Amino acid sequence: MEAEDAHGAQQAAELPPGRRMRRIKLSDQVAEELRRWIARDNLGPKDRLPPEKVLMQHFGCSKGTIREALKALEVEGLLVMQSGANGGPEIQATTTETVIQQMRQYFHFQQLDFEDVYELRKKLEVMLAENVVGKLTEDHFRRLQANIDTCIQAMRDDDREAGRVVEVQFHDILAEACDNPILDLMCRFLNVMVRDLVLRRTDSLREHSAFGQQNIDAHIELIEALRREDRDAVSAAMGRHMHCAECSMKELDATFHLDLLSRQ
Ligand SMILES: [Zn+2]
């Protein structure tokens, strides 16, 4: 008996530290099952999930639980609820806008500086420019040229807001031709940060004009190198452009908005 007690006590001592078991909410379990279902059956955008009633029967859950699960997936951007007679939960690919909004939300609670953005931009924009060499269509070139014309007009009108939006659009057009989805997303995200979130505290006309002219010259040089499909020249031109852009940001005393949560 004594040996048994000792043995029992020894076994109890070897148990791992106590852990409170978590009760997973029913709607979260249903949402997870639906995610697995979508992945397992290889369902894609525009495919439909069964209507609420069928899901209620399948999972043995109330309408409220199914709706909560579907709402969670809708908020995640995985589903969209179509209304009407043939309505119901429809699968959608998460959009770039949704992901970028979530990334902005994440960075709202970080100490983010525009120098952090340029540290990446200086490398990623060069990678992107190299990636798109030989992939741009005539339509891309036409839009890039039109973009430069709009940029020149914005500068003549001293319309800084328009100039800033158009400057970034040039880089978004380049990103369209990128065949690396991660690089594409990262560059678009950084473009949004530069376009929407940087405050330029210096209001000197001379410095703003110099920055605008510098961007236009850099874009013209880039288009010419891209036309020639000269990878080294493209890479060097984008490297210089990003370096100059960062220097100008310093001169314009750029800083970030404190609110990265609000949508534009
Ligand atoms: Zn640019």
UniProtKB/TrEMBL annotation:
Signal peptide: none
Protein's name in the database: FCD domain-containing protein
Matching InterPro entries: GntR_C, TF_FadR/GntR_C, Tscrpt_reg_HTH_GntR, WH-like_DNA-bd_sf, WH_DNA-bd_sf
CDD domains: WHTH_GntR
Pfam families with a match to the protein in the record: FCD, GntR
Keywords, in A-Z order: DNA-binding, Plasmid, Transcription, Transcription regulation
GO molecular function, one term: DNA-binding transcription factor activity
The HTH gntR-type domain, residue ranges: 24-94
